[in-house]
Design goal:
Length: about 270
């Protein structure tokens, strides 16, 4: 429960913060090169606020992680446009400051990862990866990050997102097994791209470049050695969807219910 932390975060802005139903709009990754650069003093304040948001998202409020991950890339060159985006996140937190993360273990202690990617939303044409890891029904890890290489298609971006997290999931599974002192089940990775699943399981299609061929073979090896399992998840059920892009309306409500474990959510 980070309610008190959010209250203190909002105190510095007083009543000036307008409430919003979502933390970001569809243009969250858009950069206006003509936007006025903040003064050094304002930039430092911006940096401080974003650092506090990052602390918050890593502990309890993953619903604002996508917007925060972008703002983290702007702390050294923040503009008026970036400050507007920051104030929208704060406005959403003001409206939803009573929301808390609910951890529900469930009946089976299986390790489940939802991996998704948004194709080329950044100004430099790089894609964006989102991952949400659950033990049973409890969210234990989430990340929203810009990919490090440019890809040529949505399939390539999904493949990069998938293979970037295979090693992490193996290490995480070993860690959980060590903590509970028992052998754990093979981690299940949910992926909504049927073309990627076909590429790494049925040899459907051909990777166009060497580094993508390497990623494909890496995934095939992990599957053949039963270190991971990949299962298709329809896009509408993909819990990491909101970690790759800004959602609104019912899609956003469905996203936060899935991640925060809330029983019922209303924007009223």
């Amino acid at each position: 429960d980070m309610t008190n932390f959010i209250e203190k975060l909002l105190e510095t802005h007083g009543a000036d913060v307008t409430e919003y139903s979502t933390p970001a709009t569809k243009d969250i990754f858009t950069v206006n090169e003509k936007s006025v650069v903040l003064s050094e003093a304002d930039r430092k304040d911006f940096h401080t606020e974003v650092a506090k948001l990052l602390y918050l998202t890593k502990r309890a409020r993953t619903d604002v992680m996508t917007a925060t991950s972008f703002l983290c890339t702007r702390v050294t060159k923040a503009t008026v446009q970036d400050r507007v985006k920051l104030r929208r996140v704060l406005g959403n937190l003001k409206r939803t400051r009573g929301w808390t993360l609910h951890l529900k273990i469930g009946e089976i202690l299986s390790i489940l990862a939802y991996v998704d990617a948004a194709f080329a939303p950044h100004p430099d044409a790089k894609s964006h990866t989102g991952i949400a890891v659950f033990i049973g029904e409890a969210l234990v890890f989430a990340a929203s990050r810009k990919q490090k290489c440019v890809t040529k298609s949505p399939t390539d971006s999904e493949l990069v997102a998938l293979t970037d997290n295979i090693g992490f999931m193996e290490l995480f599974t070993e860690f959980v097994g060590f903590i509970i002192n028992t052998e754990t089940q093979i981690p299940i990775i949910y992926q909504d791209s049927t073309s990627v699943i076909s590429l790494v399981t049925e040899c459907g299609g051909v990777a166009r470049t060497k580094h993508l061929r390497v990623r494909t073979e890496l995934c095939k090896e992990a599957l053949s050695q039963k270190r991971i399992e990949i299962i298709h998840m329809p896009t509408g059920e993909m819990k990491a969807d909101g970690l790759t892009k800004a959602l609104d309306g019912n899609l956003f409500l469905k996203f936060i219910v899935a991640l925060l474990g809330l029983m019922r959510v209303s924007m009223d």
